[in-house]
Design goal:
The complex is a heterotrimer.
Chain A (H helix, E strand, L loop, with lengths): L1 H37 L1 H4 L3 E4 L2 E5 L27 E2 L1 H15 L3 H18 L9 E2 H11 L5 H6 L4
Helix pairs in contact in A: 3-4, 4-5
Chain B lengths: L1 H8 L2 H9 L3 H7 L1 H18 L12 H37 L6 E6 L2 E6 L8 E4 L9 E5 L2 E4 L1 H4 L5 E3 L4 E2 L4 E2 L4 E5 L7 H9 L8 H30 L6 H11 L2 H20 L2 E3 L2 H7 L4 E5 L5 E12 L5 H12 L5 H12 L7 H6 L1 E3 L7 E6 L7 H10 L4 H11 L4 E7 H7 L5 H13 L3 E7 L2 E12 L3 H10 L3 E5 L4 H11 L3 E3 L6 H11 L4 E5 L5 H6 L2 E5 L4 H6 L2 E3 L7 H38 L17 H25 L8 H34 L2
Parallel strand pairs in B: 11-18, 11-20, 18-19, 20-21, 21-22
Antiparallel strand pairs in B: 1-2, 1-3, 3-9, 4-7, 4-9, 5-6, 5-8, 10-22, 12-17, 13-14, 14-15, 15-16, 16-17
Helix pairs in contact in B: 2-5, 3-4, 4-5, 4-9, 5-7, 5-10, 5-25, 8-9, 9-24, 9-25, 10-24, 10-25, 11-24, 12-13, 24-25, 24-26, 25-26
Chain C lengths: L1 H27 L7 H15 L9 H24 L14 H12 L9 H4 L2 H31 L8 H27 L8 E5 L5 E5 L3 H10 L20 H26 L1 H24 L12 H14 L14 H13 L8 H20 L5 E2 L2 E2 L2 H27 L2 H6 L5 H15 L14 H30 L15 H25 L5
The chains are: A mainly alpha, B alpha+beta, C mainly alpha.
Chain lengths: 160, 705, 535
């Protein structure tokens, strides 16, 4: 009994403690330290900034209830429920509604959609993902391009 | 074969036996697969017979349950029948072999008189007299006399061994000259036929390692299918299918490897039986199974590879003489030698159309017998008596005069007796000194190099030349050994000959390795050495010397004419004492395993079709999507179940001949064998039941409804 | 484009497998590794603290015991962390219920990572980092150590199977940790967050507030994929953009999952003959190829899929994840096509194409042994493996390994129905779809896969306890049986002679693949028919 205790349990407990320290504490903390110092944008959730204010995470879908914005997928339609992206078809089908609501020409909207697709293509080294549109990025771009159109929407939250 | 089968079928003992084996207790112990089928039988029979069963899982007509139950019990009976059939065949063979067991008559000395007794009745301490040409009945020691003993069948040493008082002699060896009295020192061997009976009687039959492994694998597969079918019942129920217990039992029986499960015992016994048909008695199943794995075969030269009897193949004259000279001298020296060797010398001379001109002298001359002291033999004649000149003239005119005939004439004229003798080079050198000795020795070595044994021939003190004697290869041995090589087996030849001679024979017979100038312990050493390297070693033996090696070898085949010790030690005994039969044993060992493998593969491959027969029957009524699976388009769910079960059952008797005869084995690359068997039993096993079940279904559909 | 993705995944994982396979081979036979001196010095420090003599060799029983005891202690630690996380630092959350905590501890220590909880909502940062991340090293290291011992059984003679503590230390320190480290940095670069904060709150474009769960994701994500673990930081697993932000990260994670399982046949080839290694690798890839073909044969989604991955990227990830028994998911299973789901089942039924880190290789060798048994018979030789005779005991143990798997899947599934536990979470009416979910749950648990349909809905005592039992049995019972086989093989005589049938080359690969396929399909065919086929 004594031998089992000293030959099996004692090294097992010690190795577990050592590995908790190594893999459960030191390893994630080291990654955190490196991440926070060298890649703060990604480390903190890829936050999108507009006019000096954080307006969301590039990677997480957010709701838009105004028809002036592109809409993300219904949260339950995707795998994650927070899919930030839509397909080109989904984006293009929304263009007439947005154009109506904002008065922005359809062609201008189309161009912005295509620019976003191109940007995402770059992110994915051209071949590693199908074409898609990041809804938040596209909407931020709309606000940037047509501040006067979105003055009301963005002003409302300007104070906070 | 057909009549034999008929006899076997009507053999009451066998039939009774096959029914007795239906006992669930027997099956539970011997064949878990068939036991499960029998449980299915009892289950369905109970449902069919008990009145008013109305359960969730019992929806079919009562007749249908009884029909299914009958097919199941017939399936089990087919299994027990095949086992009983092969047992009864083997039993019949044992009976016939009992008559064959060879015994020799021995001349036992009782109060100084010779009494003829059967060798089996000799006891330790008995003394027997053995004359030249007779077989020593049992192991013993020389009590009186001295003799040369031909032990070639035991030791492979083709030169006779000299034995005198207190030297041990081996049973089965042959006294070459003189006569000796031997005191028996060993007990009669216990009859190994009794051991074979133990191997074929089911109650005593031990399973071999491989059978155990296969049985476990089959049991494992069966257990998996029991779980599969058992849980299907529940899932089907919850998914809203109308599951019937009979269909589930049918699916289970169909999926379980019943074919191999049924035939496994028969295959093993049939292997033993097939060897017995070749007069080989098997004492343990292990040896037969190992035979299939044999990759090193240790063979004695004499008796296995060569005939064991040397023949003259060439005459080699000394420089002073011609071919005719030596041929004439050899002829004369062998004239009264009626041994195999002697006759072969005369034949060789005849072939060369050479005959001595002094025939008359030879015919009237006095033979010089071979003796243990002198170790030569030949002929001796006194100076020619005056014969009629005419006769003399005729002889002289028809035959060319040679130096030898001149020498003979010369001797006769000087009134010196003429002695023409042959013997080993050493023996002849002792009596004949008029020779260029280096030349003689060099020529003798040349003879050895070509695989022969040199005999010197002398006329009085002058050596004329040499006779080259050579052991000839056994008929077909080359072909047989070529087959052995194709099967991936390395051959080792063991011989008492010198390396030169051994190499020649090895080259001629296509032997891979040789152990020359072998000592008795060499065999055992080699066996152990090869086994340490992981080889499976097969060997043949018959002498007491061989017993340890035979016992150690994986496949030990003893010759029946060998000593009791050898037969005890070996796991097989050949009643015909034909060493080349070990090749048959190896082939059979392979066949045995291949038959098991083939039927196992067939059994598993059958499952594919069976799924396609039964699953639609089970699900289609409730789930139209299953229509896709209904590739067989069977008549009705009931006929699908019955025809699958019938197919499953009749496959067993259909494969009985294959189990008894074994899968064909051809020496070839294992890859090729594998592909062939896989095509035949794997692919065939997938295809056949589709056709078979469909055919039975078509037949049944005529009777149903 | 799709073909490029596929090629990059296959070439990338195979290329890395060649490098790591060679390295693993060196680890198995204690050959000199790159940087041996430095590594040796660090390891020696560990051995000193652990108190083991690195030269001491263990029998199969000692090795198995050390593995199980170490695993039990690690699982016990996680159990305590999960139950008492409310008292622990870093964003404490309520402790888990006993059954859920036990299930989760068993799940992570067995390399399963079946998740009956939503990590982002129910676990504290401490639990995720110190608890789960730590166990994500322990589980694959144990599986690989077992495989090391198993392989040594065939190449060593009477010399023990190695030292568990030494193997475990070396695997973590010199293989898993360095790869995980660099992979974490790459994932970080691609967008996976790494912070000790549990959430960030942002004002949305339209003025609302959005609270986003965050944490040390990158460090967990890399070992999650590398170690065949699969337990996501988020409930949505690799579908969540923080775990798998882009198409590039998707491809990288696929490679990460495949690399170690594919390294083992390479290592095997270095140790036991190149041809043999390549043949086993080929058989694994053929099986994996069948899964991929099923996955690509029908369009999946778009419902349940992530836009950035599409049907192809989702099917590729799912099949890779299930094939390696990682069990992570980049899409909801309900979004996958029936054919793709059949492919997933296939991977979980076989467990060896290529299977989890270490465990997959062991399983494949069991298949090889059974194949050789039949092949040997077919050519008239008593069966042997690596020139050693296969004994009845080996066949018995191998048969048990096979029997355990369907038994662990099918019997508990029946229990789930008879106890009404399945109906209570999936509805009274059993349909092929809900049956598929039940079958999938236990297949995943028994294969130590961790992929699941049920998710948090299975957080009931029945499902927690029953899947816990299945995971433990599905992991340790085969380990014990397989190490017992290896233990007896070390005592066996080896030949220097030719094999009856070469265990390399096309013929062998073909036979092995057919054998794997036939044994699996014969066992599970009816259930695939009743489940996904009828959906």
């Amino acid at each position: 009994m004594r031998t089992i205790k000293s030959k099996v349990f004692s090294p097992a407990i010690r190795i577990v403690v050592l590995m908790i320290i190594t893999t459960g504490v030191a390893y994630p903390l080291l990654i955190t330290a490196i991440g926070q110092t060298t890649l703060p944008y990604q480390s903190n959730g890829s936050q999108v900034v507009l006019n000096g204010k954080v307006v969301g995470s590039e990677l997480i879908a957010q709701n838009f209830n105004s028809t002036k914005f592109f809409q993300p997928r219904n949260s339950t339609d995707s795998g994650s429920g927070v899919d930030p992206d839509i397909t080109p078809n989904m984006a293009i089908s929304q263009i007439p509604v947005i154009s109506n609501a904002t008065g922005i020409p359809v062609n201008a909207l189309k161009t912005l959609v295509e620019l976003d697709i191109a940007k995402n293509k770059e992110t994915n080294a051209l071949v590693f993902a199908p074409d898609y549109i990041n809804v938040l990025n596209l909407n931020v771009e709309l606000v940037k391009q047509y501040p006067e159109v979105y003055a009301q929407e963005v002003l409302v939250k300007g104070g906070t | 074969m057909a009549t034999k089968l008929k006899q076997a079928i009507f053999d009451k003992r066998m039939l009774g036996d096959s029914v007795t084996k239906l006992s669930p207790l027997y099956l539970a112990k011997k064949s878990p697969v068939m036991f499960t089928v029998e449980v299915g039988f009892f289950l369905l029979l109970a449902i069919g017979l008990l009145p008013n069963m109305s359960l969730e899982f019992v929806n079919e007509n009562r007749i249908f349950y009884i029909e299914s139950a009958i097919i199941l019990i017939v399936t089990v009976w087919f299994a027990t029948f095949s086992e009983s059939l092969s047992e009864s065949q083997a039993r019949a063979k044992v009976d016939s072999l009992r008559n064959l067991e060879k015994e020799v008559l021995a001349k036992k000395l009782v109060d100084g008189k010779e009494v003829l007794v059967n060798s089996a009745n000799l006891k330790v301490g008995d003394r027997v007299r053995v004359y030249a040409g007779e077989i020593i009945p049992r192991d013993g020691i020389v009590h009186q006399g001295r003799a040369f003993i031909d032990e070639s069948m035991m030791t492979g040493e083709s030169n006779p061994a000299f034995k005198e008082k207190d030297n041990p002699v081996l049973g089965g060896t042959k006294v070459a000259n003189d006569s000796i009295i031997i005191e028996i020192t060993s007990e009669a061997g216990k009859s190994f036929l009794d051991e074979m009976v133990g191997l074929i009687e089911s109650a005593k039959r031990p399973k071999t390692k491989n059978e155990i492994a296969l049985t476990i694998l089959l049991a494992g597969l069966s257990l998996i299918f029991i779980i599969v079918v058992g849980t299907m019942l529940f899932f089907g129920y919850y998914l809203g299918y109308h599951m019937d217990i009979s269909i589930l039992v049918a699916l289970l029986v169909a999926l379980m490897p019943t074919t191999i499960g049924a035939l496994l015992p028969a295959i093993g016994v049939a292997g033993i039986n097939r060897l017995a048909r070749d007069n080989i008695i098997v004492k343990s199943g292990k040896g037969v199974e190992a035979a299939g794995d044999c990759d090193i075969l240790i063979l004695d030269k004499t008796g296995t590879i060569t005939e064991g009897a040397r023949r003259a193949i060439a005459f080699v004259p000394m420089e002073k003489f011609t071919d005719e000279d030596i041929a004439q001298a050899a002829y004369a020296a062998s004239f009264s030698d009626h041994t195999h060797e002697g006759t072969s010398i005369i034949e060789l001379a005849n072939e060369k159309k050479i005959e001595p001109p002094f025939m008359m002298e030879i015919m009237t001359g006095k033979p010089v017998e071979f003796s243990s002291e002198t170790r030569f033999s030949g002929i001796e004649f006194s100076p020619k008596k005056k014969l009629s000149t005419t006769q003399d003239q005729t002889l002289k005119s028809t035959l060319p005069r040679t130096r030898v005939s001149a020498k003979v004439e010369e001797l006769e004229e000087s009134n010196t007796p003429v002695k023409i003798l042959k013997g080993s080079v050493e023996a002849i050198l002792k009596i004949a000194t008029n020779v260029n000795e280096p030349e003689l020795r060099w020529k003798a070595q040349e003879v050895s190099k070509s695989g022969g044994t040199p005999l010197a021939v002398a006329v009085n003190d002058e050596i004329i030349g040499l006779i080259s004697l050579k052991d000839t290869l056994k008929k077909d041995i080359r072909t047989k050994l070529d087959e052995v090589h194709v099967a991936g087996i390395t051959t080792v030849m063991i011989t008492g000959d010198n390396l030169l001679t051994a190499q020649v024979i090895a080259r001629e017979a296509n032997i891979d390795q040789i152990i020359a100038e072998a000592k008795p312990t060499d065999k055992l050493n080699r066996v152990v050495e090869e086994q340490l390297k992981g080889h499976v070693v097969g060997m043949i033996g018959d002498g007491t010397n061989d017993a340890p090696a035979l016992a150690k070898a994986d496949i030990g085949l003893a010759m029946n004419r060998g000593t009791a010790a050898a037969r005890e030690a070996a796991n097989m005994v050949d009643l015909d004492s034909d060493p080349s039969k070990i090749l048959k044993v190896i082939k059979l060992g392979k066949q045995l395993l291949m038959t098991r493998g083939a039927i196992t593969t067939f059994s598993i491959a059958n499952d594919v079709a069976k799924y396609f027969a039964i699953l639609p029957a089970m699900f289609m009524k409730d789930n139209p999507k299953m229509e896709v699976l209904n590739v067989m388009q069977l008549h009705s769910p009931e006929s699908a179940v019955l025809s699958t079960l019938i197919f499953n059952a009749i496959v067993i008797p259909m494969l009985i001949p294959l189990s008894l005869k074994g899968v064909k084995y051809k020496p070839e690359l294992p890859e090729r064998t594998f592909i062939k068997n896989m095509m035949m039993y794997g692919v065939g096993g997938v295809v056949l039941p589709f056709a078979g079940i469909k055919a039975i279904d078509l037949l049944l559909s005529v009777f149903m409804r | 484009m799709d073909i490029v993705i596929l090629l990059v995944v296959l070439v990338g994982s195979l290329g890395l497998a060649v490098v790591f396979g060679r390295y693993i081979a060196r680890m198995i036979i204690y050959e000199k590794r790159p940087l041996e001196k430095t590594l040796g010095r660090v390891e020696n420090g560990f051995y000193k603290i652990i108190g083991v003599d690195k030269y001491e060799q263990m029998t199969w029983k000692q090795y198995t015991l050390a593995l199980i005891v170490t695993n039990a202690i690690a699982a016990g630690f996680l159990l305590a962390v999960l139950i008492y996380q409310n008292n622990l630092p870093l964003s404490p959350k309520p402790g888990l219920s006993l059954d859920l905590a036990f299930n989760t501890a068993a799940s992570f220590v067995t390399n399963t990572n079946l998740q009956h909880y939503a990590g982002d909502q129910q676990l504290s940062i401490f639990s995720q980092m110190v608890g789960l991340t730590f166990l994500m090293f322990v589980a694959p290291a144990s599986g690989m150590a077992a495989a090391f011992a198993f392989i040594r059984g065939f190449i060593r003679k009477e010399f023990g199977l190695g030292n568990f503590y030494v193997d475990f230390t070396r695997i973590i320190l010199t293989l898993l940790l360095p790869i995980a480290f660099f992979s974490a940095l790459l994932l970080l670069f691609l967008g996976a967050p790494q912070t000790l904060d549990p959430t960030i709150t942002v004002g949305t474009l339209q003025g609302g507030n959005q609270t986003i769960t965050i944490g040390p994701v990158a460090s967990l994500e890399s070992i999650k994929d590398l170690g065949s673990n699969g337990g996501g930081f988020f409930g949505a697993n690799s579908a969540h953009p923080f775990e798998n932000p882009t198409g590039v990260s998707n491809v990288f994670e696929c490679i990460l999952m495949l690399v170690i399982p594919l390294s083992f046949p390479v290592a095997y080839g270095h140790l036991l003959g190149k041809g043999r290694g390549i043949s086993i690798l080929a058989a694994m890839l053929i099986g994996f190829g069948v899964m991929l073909a099923l996955g690509f044969s029908e369009q999946s989604g778009p419902t349940g899929l992530e836009t950035r991955f599409g049907s192809f990227g989702s099917a590729l990830f799912q099949e890779s994840s299930i094939a390696t028994n990682t069990g992570s998911a980049n899409a909801s299973l309900t979004g996958m096509s029936p054919n793709a789901v059949i492919g997933l089942f296939l991977g979980m039924f076989v467990q060896a194409i290529p299977g989890a880190d270490g465990a997959g290789m062991m399983m494949m060798i069991i298949f090889v042994i059974l194949t050789l048994f039949l092949v040997g018979l077919m050519v008239g030789k008593t069966p042997e493996f690596m020139s050693m005779k296969i004994s009845p005991r080996d066949v018995k143990l191998a048969a048990f390994v096979f029997l355990i798997h369907p038994a662990l899947i099918l019997v508990p599934s029946v229990l789930a129905y008879t106890t009404e536990s399945a109906q209570s979470i999936l509805g009274e009416q059993t349909t092929p779809a809900t049956f598929t979910q039940v079958l999938y749950e236990y297949s995943s648990a028994a294969a130590n896969n961790g992929s699941d349909y049920l998710g948090t809905s299975a957080n009931t005592p029945f499902w927690n306890w029953s899947t816990m039992a299945v995971m433990l049995l599905g992991r340790y019972a085969p380990f014990v049986l397989m190490l017992a086989i290896a233990g007896s093989f070390t005592l066996r005589d080896r030949k220097e002679v030719v094999e009856p049938i070469k265990t390399s080359g096309f013929l062998f690969v073909g036979v092995l693949s057919i054998m794997v396929f036939v044994l699996t399909v014969l066992t599970f065919f009816p259930f695939l028919i009743m489940g996904p086929f009828s959906m």
